[in-house]
């Protein structure tokens, strides 16, 4: 249900999406913790959308960005906005690219999945992270389901309880580095930063 909505609303979303880069502090924290062995950090952006402004910021910081989105219209925008980045049209659920990245991001995308699909994503995160790699994602602040809106269409969001996210991260071999529920310095986003054991 989410992906067809974003297919229809991709252009609207790209126009309406804030380009103020309020996420910058968290992106900088991600880069500070992500390993950098081969010169350029490899970043996997799950639910990348149009790539503006987050993937563009990372690309400007010499990251090799791979964007994945289940909506073909979003991947088309991502490719247009970041012509040097790799763009992959695929559903993040069950994704297996057969490679590892220094950082994985699921910002304002992962929380569109059902609770069970979210639980199943932690092995996906882990298998795409290199040892010592960093994970950045957003969730809700509590166990809940909420219906939002994009372009006048309903948009599903779900969240697990913080304690369950911590357990899922631990089970996937990751430690929580920072957790900020409804961060007032990040447009009230609830943000997680974790690192895979190295």
Automatic annotation (TrEMBL):
Recorded GO molecular functions are: methyltransferase activity
Q: Which UniProt keywords apply?
A: Methyltransferase, S-adenosyl-L-methionine, Transferase
Domain Methyltransferase span(s) in chain numbering = 43-133
SUPFAM superfamilies noted in UniProt: S-adenosyl-L-methionine-dependent methyltransferases
Q: Where is the signal peptide?
A: none
Q: Which GO terms describe its biological process?
A: methylation
Residue ranges annotated as transmembrane are none
Q: Which PANTHER family match?
A: METHYLTRANSFERASE, UBIQUINONE BIOSYNTHESIS O-METHYLTRANSFERASE, MITOCHONDRIAL
Give the protein name, as stated in the record: Type 12 methyltransferase
